[in-house]
Amino acid sequence: MTLTGIGVTVRQAGPDDAVGGVLPRWVALPESVEEIAALLRACAEQDLAVVPVGGGTKLHWGAPPERCDVLLDMCCMNAVLEHAAGDLVVRVQAGATMDALAAELAGKGQELALDVPSGAGSTVGGTLAAGLPGPRAFRFGTARDLLIGITVVLADGTVARSGGKVVKNVAGYDLGKLFAGSYGSLGVIAEAVFRLHPLPAERRWVVAEPALDEVPAIALALAASQAEPSAVEVDRPDPDGPLVLAALVEGTAAEARARALRDVVGGGEVIGQPPSWWGRVPSGEVLAEVRFPPTATGAVLDAAAGAGTALRGSPVAGRLLLATDGQLAVSALRKTVEDAGGRVVVLATPDSGVDRWGQISGLALMRRVKERFDPGRRMSPGRFVGGI
Ligand SMILES: Cc1cc2nc3c(=O)[nH]c(=O)nc-3n(C[C@H](O)[C@H](O)[C@H](O)COP(=O)(O)OP(=O)(O)OC[C@H]3O[C@@H](n4cnc5c(N)ncnc54)[C@H](O)[C@@H]3O)c2cc1C
């Protein structure tokens, strides 16, 4: 087996290249969409399994791959290809870091309205494929919602595009929706086209310490407030400690609107910088994401508090992250959350025996999509829901 002679830089893998403990044989460093396609064609001919990697910050999320021959490193595809500032649109290669993209856009007074923390090296492709929503998803949606076009390379080397700069559609499929949150299991995201927003003139945060059982009513009132918060988040790093609630307002008259929100919360202070935890994933060996409808906020917060973990997330968007270095009683938590209409996904855990995904509605459909895009099961096999 060989990957030489296809015009793609390939090196032998080392211990640092392991994905969930599975060591690939090679690391490939494509520099163009065509090179990704050539590489995936060669892998298809030799039945080699491929795991794409961006910044590598979340390779421990999802199950370890069943097999991994080639780590496809997107680091050389890191250009902002086209920033049409007048149209509030950007086209970017998937290996570009979110920091580099943010710097480029800020130069023209614009932003991609996600809250990915700076400094980690997270890439555009990894952010899309990992699919985690941030605080401002409440107002602007997730990376998937801000995506208006995507170029992907499928397991057989086919290049497919949808939306934005349309060249050719894969008939009947919304590629952006499918590839967002796909953990590299359907193919390689090569380029993305995003809708942008102007950088807000001002930002203010209202920060308060309500009791846990006051949060559902406060969240409802904040979500309905005419002061229009862009985000409302809670944070409780210590399961026995106080809970902090923070609400963000952006744009004109931010100070006055923040004071109006403070009245809704019933106290607190207005500050000009985010709390240190804002938009950050809480740390812990075990990390679970809970999604729930607004009606279930009280039940889910109680269940999360009972789980004895750090908790952080949005009571208005119905999303919490629970983190611990100890044990998380996943089955009990999942039962309570599912009874309330929500669901629990374990994003990261060192315990291979844990059911990461729980019951997934639509799993049969997802299997059919996997079969259509990657019938040979070469793209990140076993990483995703239901062993996809
Ligand atoms: C609002 C927000 C806030 C966040 N806050 C934090 C935080 O505080 N701390 C933190 O650690 N993380 C945080 N994250 C998550 C983190 O930013 C993403 O998980 C990260 O962007 C992953 O990027 P990466 O390049 O490191 O991906 P990687 O770790 O390289 O890959 C992640 C997954 O995507 C797949 N993948 C990577 N690139 C591609 C590609 N081109 N095509 C197909 N599949 C691919 C990989 O196979 C893997 O399954 C946040 C994310 C958001 C959106």
TrEMBL record:
Keywords, comma-separated and alphabetical: FAD, Flavoprotein
FAD-binding PCMH-type domain segment(s): 19-199
InterPro entries tied to this protein: FAD-bd_PCMH (IPR016166), FAD-bd_PCMH-like_sf (IPR036318), FAD-bd_PCMH_sub2 (IPR016169), FAD-linked_Oxase-like_C (IPR016164), Oxid_FAD_bind_N (IPR006094)
Signal peptide: none
Domain of life: Bacteria
Keyword Flavoprotein: yes
Protein name as annotated: FAD-binding oxidoreductase
